[in-house]
Amino acid sequence: MGVSLLASWLAGCVSTPAVPPARAVPLPEAAKPAGPTPEEIRQRNVEFFLARADAAQRQGFLTQPAGASAYDYYLRVRQLDPDNRRAASGIQTIVIEFVERARDALRRRSFGEVTTYLRRADELAPDNPLVAEVRAQLARERRQASAGLPEGETIALSPAALSAKSPELVSQLQELARRIRSENQRIIIVARQDAEGRWIYQQLREAVPGYRVRGDIRLGGAPQVILTGAMGN
């Protein structure tokens, strides 16, 4: 009996520890995939602009339109990768294309076109030996063309005014046409290309309706009109 009471008393003195409330444990976040590195972005841009340059070149957009030509795209590649061989090769291909166009114009003795194409090639690759070679050929052809011109009074025409077909030049040609008619002069028109020579002749002819301006067109040398002398009636 005494033992039972003692056991009961001891049991009452022992306290049961409180159970802590359950807490939510956050799950570890899934690792986010790492983005492209700056080097990967640069390489992607290089490949993108190379592809655009190749496409523009196939379509014939060598240096125009500005900002969307093959040459402009190659420049963007070189800004990202100065030693990129494909960009250097692409620019050289454009230069060669302009040189070939200049050679073709030289065979046609269209000296104005030759100068235009060589200037474009020079802008892309200064001191290119191919450009220097064709420019030397152009100088020889021009000397030969000038040597074959007849003697006479020479009226020089401004190349810039010719390119712009300026009103001042038209007035100059109209006045010259009236003199040609009054003196019954035969003329030689020297022009940089055939279309330019025909335009000069058209201005002379339209200035004197009913009168036939007689002469010839020579390609090469500085633009001018040569009065070779009065013709007999």
Characterization of the model:
The chain is α+β, with helices and mostly antiparallel strands and 233 residues long. It has two domains: 39-146, Serine Threonine Protein Phosphatase 5, Tetratricopeptide repeat; 153-230, no CATH class. 59% of the residues lie in helices and 10% in strands. The protein is built from nine helices and four strands; from the N terminus they run H-H-H-H-H-H-E-H-H-E-H-E-E. It has a four-stranded mixed beta sheet. Helix 9 (194-207) links the parallel strand 2 and strand 3. Helix 4 runs antiparallel to helix 5 (111-124). The longest helix has 23 residues, at 85-107. The radius of gyration is 42 Å and the shape is elongated. It starts with a helix and ends with a strand.
Key features of this structure:
10% strand, 9 helices, four-stranded mixed beta sheet, alpha+beta, elongated, 233 residues, Serine Threonine Protein Phosphatase 5, Tetratricopeptide repeat
> Which class of secondary structure composition applies to the elements?
alpha+beta
Task: Please work out how many helical segments DSSP would assign.
Answer: 9
What is the CATH topology classification name of the largest domain? Answer: Serine Threonine Protein Phosphatase 5, Tetratricopeptide repeat
How far is the first residue's CA from the last residue's CA? 168 Å
Largest sheet: number of strands, sense, barrel closure: 4 strands, mixed
What order do the helices and strands follow? HHHHHHEHHEHEE
CATH architecture of the largest domain: Alpha Horseshoe
Rg, alpha carbons: 42 Å
Indicate the mean pLDDT: 85
Work out the strand percent: 5-15%
Shape: elongated
The structural domain count equals 2
Low-confidence stretches: none
Reading side by side through the largest sheet, how are the strands ordered?
1-4-2-3
CATH class of the largest domain: Mainly Alpha
Query: How many runs of DSSP E, i.e. beta strands?
Result: 4
